[in-house]
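Section 5: illustrative case.
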């Protein structure tokens, strides 16, 4: 879309020009289910317990690199990572947290973060992204993280 004149210039003659199309030539569509649940329960003189669960099921993550007259197709990045799909896109991930708010102005939390396994995008049967890959890069295993937190609420001046 960039045409230079015989001297290599874009502006020195009428033979040079840029064709600018104001159109979005790519796309990203996603589908899945998000879940967010929360519950709090008083435990008498011991404060309260809070439970929170937040999860995402990624059914599809369709990438269309270009569209319209230049369309070359689309590919699904759900469950994949790599040079075309980018950062890992696990089909399932969640965070579950339990928090104890004590009557002594101390809060204690325990959280479990989970990310499902992903495969390198070259394992796809789609010819746009499928191809050769190093076996060591084929799969990123599922990951579990345990987070522990405590907070102290201070009253008065320090």
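Designed sequence:
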């Amino acid at each position: 879309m960039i045409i230079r004149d015989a001297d290599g210039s874009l502006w020195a003659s009428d033979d040079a020009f840029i064709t600018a199309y104001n159109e979005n030539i790519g796309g990203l569509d996603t589908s899945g289910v998000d879940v967010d649940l929360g519950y709090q329960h008083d435990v008498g003189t011991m404060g309260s317990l809070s439970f929170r669960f937040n999860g995402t099921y990624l059914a599809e993550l369709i990438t269309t690199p270009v569209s319209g007259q230049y369309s070359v197709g689309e590919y699904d990045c759900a469950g994949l990572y790599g040079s075309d799909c980018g950062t890992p896109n696990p089909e399932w991930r969640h965070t579950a947290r339990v928090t104890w708010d004590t009557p002594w102005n101390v809060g204690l939390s325990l959280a479990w973060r989970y990310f499902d396994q992903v495969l390198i995008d070259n394992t796809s049967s789609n010819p746009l992204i499928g191809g050769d890959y190093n076996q060591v890069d084929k799969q990123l295993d599922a990951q579990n993280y345990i987070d522990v937190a405590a907070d102290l609420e201070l009253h008065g001046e320090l």
